[in-house]
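Record type: monomer structure entry
Structure origin: computed from sequence
Chain ID: A
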Amino acid sequence: MSKTTKSSLVQAIKDKGKNIEGEMSFFDHLEILRWHIIRSVIAVAVFATLAFSFYDFVFNKVIMGPKNLDFWTYRMMCKAGEILHIDGFCVDKIPFNIINTEMAGQFMLQINSCLITAVALGFPYLLFEVWLFIKPALTDIERRSARGFIFYATFLFVLGMLFGYYIVVPLSINFLSNVSLSAEITNQITIDSYLSTIATLSLGCGIVFLLPILIFILSKLGIMTPEFMRASRRYAIVIILIIAAVITPSADVITMLTVSAPMFILYEISIMVSANVKKGKEQKEKEFYRN
């Protein structure tokens, strides 16, 4: 056998070994990911069982809360209307009935609402599992930079959920239920549509409030810069106002500004987060070249 053939054979064996090692590493990662998913599913199941055990409270106080006139937001709107002398700001009727059109509709309502509640309650633990999965791939510097990730992400998500549930949901329900094109049309809303509206707006606001976390990650990757965000502020204002108008399609300027104000604040906070990340990078570069 020639030296060339032997060399080619040895190289092929080495390459094969590297491929096997890479495949094992890939399957090891899949196995780790599988256990993270299993634990997350178990956590959601536990919280769903907890929600099922207290379903009377979940349904009557949480899900049906924005349907009742004694809901906290409606009471505050009436008080604000009295103080500011704004006619029509107090909610005195929510003209729609909730109906069920499916044989298993109420059973599925219980299952779906328990699962949605479980995801909302288990969000911090789900973040913890995500952190455990990505943590080994981070450097020590990246781990220190991401310290407090779970706390801040959970805080922003909960804050967004509360904003969505107590502000966006009741304002949307109040407006949409009072839209009447004809007296001949009666609003009969299916329970699926009602639950979907509450879940989508509440969870959606919770996700939107994670914007500073997203900007932090993009800034760390060098994709987002504070200069770009400041230059795009005018466009961001227009987009935020459009989103607020879609969420609360009302001619009431106060309502639209109430919804858009937290989004403006989040955008400004995101600019500060991006600027802080950039400042840290520049400081590390100066220290590196100085040494």
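Annotation 1: The longest helix spans residues 3-53.
Annotation 2: Strands lie at 97-99, 188-190.
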